[in-house]
Amino acid sequence: MQTQCDKLVVLVTKGIESELSSVAFTIANGGITAGLKVSVFLTSTGIDLVRKGGQRMTHVLPLDPLSSLIENFQQRGGTIWACPPCVTSRGYNKEDLLDGVVIVGASAMHAEIKEGAATLSF
Known about the structure:
Elements: E1 7-12, H1 20-33, E2 37-42, H2 66-75, E3 79-82, H3 84-89, E4 102-103, H4 107-114, E5 118-121
Parallel strand pairs: 1-2, 1-5, 2-3, 3-4
């Protein structure tokens, strides 16, 4: 028997070059609106979404600008995790990323999934 959970984890592997990054944060914000506790785990080029200034490079009409989507997500209590090896491989450190972004391994995401979180991948 499946139990109901109020958590959503969104895995984002696409960066500023893909409209899927804007779709992912639009859906993540929708999850918060629906009453879910939403976490976004960024890997691969998805890390560039939270590099200071990087998110200003993407605006997929008719969606809101990516910078607004991410800011809204964080202001409403969404959690953003960044994959440590992915951050390092790009030569970034914590100071290069938006405030509030947590550099943490996949174990944080796995813990939410073990508690029953739904998952989406972009």
